[in-house]
Design a protein that fits this description.
- The protein is mainly alpha-helical.
- The chain has 10 helices and no strands.
- It has 2 domains: 69 residues, Arc Repressor Mutant, subunit A; 113 residues, no CATH class.
- 81% of the residues lie in helices and 0% in strands.
């Protein structure tokens, strides 16, 4: 009996690893090319498995896409929720690290969001997550204001902390992560304190 349960545990672990590899491969490939242009063969090969195994795990490419979207959304949410609420330098450091890891991938997706319904779902999910992050993270500063002024300040913070600002400063203007963080912190303070 012990041998059988040992083999079942190893099989379950192997199945879980295969599923994780498929999701990782899908996230990487879907962020580089359109959903429609990504084949099951490509994803399976990148994960070191077969299309049949992919289909056994997810049922279809759409099923894999949904699982990949859910997994990446959960990962981003966990990373962004690590930002300390009300701590501007801590929030900026969290955001800078997030964009260092995800920024270029997000920009590629944004460039293609009008070409694919699947990509649009990803970018819409990202926009919602970002707005929720800003509201939660800078809530103590925003709560000093009421009504339309609070709403304007929230919108200003959403815009300032957007990936396109990171792109302009870090990719286009060649600012270091530290310079980006310093500039962003000053701009955020100007919005919430002004």
């Amino acid at each position: 009996m012990k041998i059988r349960s040992y083999h079942q545990a190893r099989r379950a672990q192997s199945t879980r690893r295969t599923r994780e590899h498929l999701i990782e491969a899908a996230v990487e490939l879907f962020s580089k090319q359109l959903f429609e242009a990504t084949s099951l063969n490509e994803i399976a090969a990148a994960a070191g498995t077969t299309p049949q195994t992919l289909l056994r795990h997810f049922g279809s490419k759409e099923g894999l896409f949904q699982s990949a979207l859910q997994a990446s959304t959960e990962q981003v949410r966990r990373e962004r929720e690590a930002a300390p609420v009300g701590d501007i330098p801590g929030a900026v450091a969290n955001l800078a690290e997030h964009y260092r890891q995800w920024g270029e991938r997000v920009l590629r997706l944004l460039a293609r969001e009008d070409a694919s319904a699947q990509v649009r779902r990803v970018t819409d999910t990202g926009r919602t997550l970002h707005a929720e992050w800003v509201e939660r993270t800078f809530g103590p500063q925003l709560d000093r204001h009421r009504g339309n002024l609070r709403s304007q300040k929230l919108d200003g913070l959403i815009a300032l902390t957007d990936v396109y600002v990171w792109k302009v400063l870090c990719l286009d203007r060649k600012r270091t992560t530290g310079e980006y963080a310093s500039l962003l912190e000053g701009l955020i303070r100007a919005v919430v304190e002004g």
